[in-house]
From TrEMBL:
CDD domains: NMNAT. It catalyses: beta-nicotinamide D-ribonucleotide + ATP + H(+) = diphosphate + NAD(+). PANTHER family: NICOTINAMIDE MONONUCLEOTIDE ADENYLYLTRANSFERASE. SUPFAM superfamilies: Nucleotidylyl transferase (SSF52374). This is Uncharacterized protein. The keyword Zinc does not apply.
Length: 299
């Protein structure tokens, strides 16, 4: 794998990413943390030492990252949304932690010739994390559906927090399950509410009710508009009917990213690079652009 000697990847990142991928593909685990900013993640360092009794708020950006774009960056930087009838407190201005999540089994996408490998995507995700801010982790998961991802993530966080909590049990209150917010584009939201990815429409309704209900997994969705994405009108109509009630219950929130960012796509980057044009560099961060060039991706 080609890489510049000045690459900002931390020592051992590539070998750890490869080992994580192999464990996942061998069925030895369903989720692997490839990078955390410190040993106490998902807590912030100050939270860990002082104790935090309320649930951690964790955003999850799940994508193919082939490659990460400025649209991914905008979504990852987005802030939590509180109930419309309540003021958002200072503690809710931002998430406690952020997670960039790569699925090795995507409900509609698989590796094709010319794609970045999973390890290369994980490396680019790390580079993206450097532009997001503090307390961002990178992970890989073997689960195609969001409901399944949420189940695995909750199990992971339960074990992770318990292991971190043990030394400070006397000073920290009862453990709370983290509140997960999934960040996605409107095209992905349509897939989440598409019956073809479930055993039946009834099964979809049951699973999504559990996924988004406060008395279930208590997840929320923040969705960015993507007006340039073409979606079958009938599929979009059925999905809208399915998720409207969750919008009304404030389990799904819509946000606007900039006009430029909402039109960006990984496909656009790959096609433009392959065409030999240079304007693709404006679609990604400088670190990701340098990585694509240094590793000869998408040519």
């Amino acid at each position: 794998m080609r890489r510049s000697p000045s690459s900002p990847l931390p020592p051992g990142f590539t070998s750890k990413a490869l080992g994580s991928l192999q464990r996942l593909q061998q069925g030895l685990s369903t989720l692997e943390l490839v990078h955390t900013p410190h040993g106490h993640w998902p807590y912030r360092p100050a939270q860990f030492h002082m104790g935090k009794s309320c649930p951690l708020r964790v955003s999850v950006l799940d994508s193919s990252f082939n490659p990460p774009t400025l649209a991914h960056l905008a979504l990852a930087r987005s802030s939590p949304r509180g109930p419309t009838d309540q003021a958002v407190s200072a503690s809710e201005i931002d998430y406690d932690a952020r997670l960039l999540l790569l699925s090795v089994r995507n409900a509609e996408k698989s590796l094709v010739p010319g794609d970045a490998t999973y390890v290369q995507r994980l490396e680019m995700m790390y580079l993206l994390s450097l532009d997001i801010g503090n307390n961002v982790a990178v992970a890989i998961i073997d689960q195609p559906t969001f409901v399944g991802k949420s189940t695995i993530l909750h199990s992971f966080f339960q074990s992770k927090l318990a292991s971190l909590h043990t030394p400070l049990a006397a000073g920290m209150g009862a453990l709370h399950r983290p509140k997960l917010t999934f960040l996605l584009g409107s095209d992905t939201l349509v897939r989440v509410f598409s019956p073809k990815f479930y055993a039946s429409e009834e099964e979809m309704t049951r699973l999504l009710q559990k996924f988004l209900s406060p008395d279930g997994q208590d997840c929320q969705i923040i969705c960015a508009h993507r007006p340039n994405v073409t979606i079958d009108e009938e599929v979009e109509r059925r999905a809208l009917n399915a998720y409207r009630k969750f919008v009304d219950r404030e389990r799904i929130h819509f946000i606007d990213i900039s006009d430029d960012e909402q039109t960006l796509s990984s496909t656009q980057v790959r096609v433009t690079v392959a065409a030999g044009k240079d304007d693709w560099k404006r679609l990604v961060t400088d670190l990701v652009a340098n990585y694509i060039i240094e590793n000869g991706l998408y040519v």
